[in-house]
């Protein structure tokens, strides 16, 4: 775990092996940066499947939040397992995975997700992965960007997706960590620090939802809102309506509850940070999955999301192939 792009000895060895391999293939060292995006991150699976179909395999991989989940499973050779898990999710099963927390630190403990993750990644250490991997997390209190490159893979992944207020923060060493999307939503910089010469970024939040614009107020609408309560006509809203994320049946006119307002605020902040980070260190190629109609908690739509990931990758292939020499048989 490090706050700066320091390469541990094991990473240096793997980097040397990677460089030798790339010299033999005549290709640059390829890095893949998988971005945050909650349920939309299932499209990362489709991206990896489509890249592999065209003989493009990352030499280093980094991920943030759901991107860390998929990147970590890929690095550990568990992509089939995470895809199978994603495809079995239904609305009901997603809801059962949201085990309520009474600790006061979050809405959800995440114990059921932790158990599912550890079942597949038990005993897997980041240092033992066949390719360099890092998960991005944020340190509670300081806001430091932390790159998790050592120790338990499942623990690093949990820290990277611990959405503030929704999942409990994760303690690693003497630090409490939560979602890395607050500091580096698409970890292009991490891939470069790991030795990548050509970085492909996968952005699953690039849609019209958070495009910056200024909207003038409507006095008549303000009066109508003032006459309604905080939950509109639902003064007797249940605990679920008031506190759990409402994405399955959310309508445009519905008043946000606690979790929905918090998550939407987080997503807006993430979007602004993402634009700034990509402008400061642009990737060599970007795969953009446009998912306007997919909610951030629509984990049950894995089949659709994986398909979207593959289609987005197909659109980006001409640009990728223009910079990475590959056998003619692999060209699109």
The count of β-strands is 8
How do the helices and strands follow one another from N- to C-terminus? HEHEHHHHEEHEEHEHHHEH
How would you sum up the global shape? globular
Outline the biggest β-sheet: 8 strands, mixed
Using the CA coordinates, give the radius of gyration: 20 Å
Count the domains: 1
Estimate the helix proportion, in percent.
40-55%
Low-confidence stretches: 4-13, 208-216, 225-244, 327-331
- Strand proportion, as a percent range, falls in 5-15%
Structural class: alpha/beta
Summed up, the helix count is 12
> How far is it from the N-terminal to the C-terminal residue, by CA?
39 Å
Can you tell me the CATH class?
Alpha Beta
GO molecular function: hydrolase activity
Keywords: Hydrolase, Lipid degradation, Lipid metabolism
Protein name: NTE family protein rssA
Active site: 65, 179
């Amino acid at each position: 775990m490090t706050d700066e792009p320091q390469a541990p000895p094991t990473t240096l060895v793997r980097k040397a092996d990677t460089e030798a391999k790339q010299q033999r293939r005549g290709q640059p060292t390829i890095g893949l940066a998988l971005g945050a995006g909650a349920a939309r991150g299932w499209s990362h699976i489709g991206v990896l499947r489509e890249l592999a179909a065209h003989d493009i395999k990352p030499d280093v991989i980094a991920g943030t939040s759901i991107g860390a989940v998929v990147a970590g499973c890929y690095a550990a050779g568990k992509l089939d397992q995470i895809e199978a898990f994603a495809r079995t999710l239904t609305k009901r099963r997603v809801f059962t995975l949201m085990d309520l927390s009474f600790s006061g630190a979050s809405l959800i403990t995440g114990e059921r997700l932790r158990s599912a993750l550890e079942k597949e990644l038990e005993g897997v250490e980041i240092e033992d992965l066949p390719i360099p991997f890092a998960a991005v997390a944020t340190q509670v209190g300081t806001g430091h960007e932390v790159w998790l490159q050592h120790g338990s893979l499942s623990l690093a992944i949990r820290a990277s997706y611990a959405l503030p207020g929704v999942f409990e923060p994760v303690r690693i060493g003497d630090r409490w960590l939560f979602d890395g999307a607050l500091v580096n939503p698409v970890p292009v910089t991490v891939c470069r620090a790991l030795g990548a010469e050509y970085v492909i970024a996968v952005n699953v939040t690039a849609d019209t939802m958070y495009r910056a614009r200024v909207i003038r107020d409507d006095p008549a609408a303000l009066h109508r809102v003032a006459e309604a309560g905080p939950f509109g006509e639902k003064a007797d809203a249940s605990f679920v309506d008031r506190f759990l994320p409402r994405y399955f049946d959310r309508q445009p006119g519905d008043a946000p509850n606690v979790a929905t307002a918090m998550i939407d605020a987080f997503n807006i902040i993430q979007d602004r940070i993402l634009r700034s980070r990509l402008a400061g260190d642009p990737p060599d190629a970007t795969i953009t999955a446009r998912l306007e109609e997919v909610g951030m908690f629509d984990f049950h739509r894995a089949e659709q999301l994986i398909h979207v990931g593959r289609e987005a990758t197909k659109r980006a292939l001409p640009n990728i192939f223009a910079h990475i020499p590959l056998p003619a048989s692999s060209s699109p």
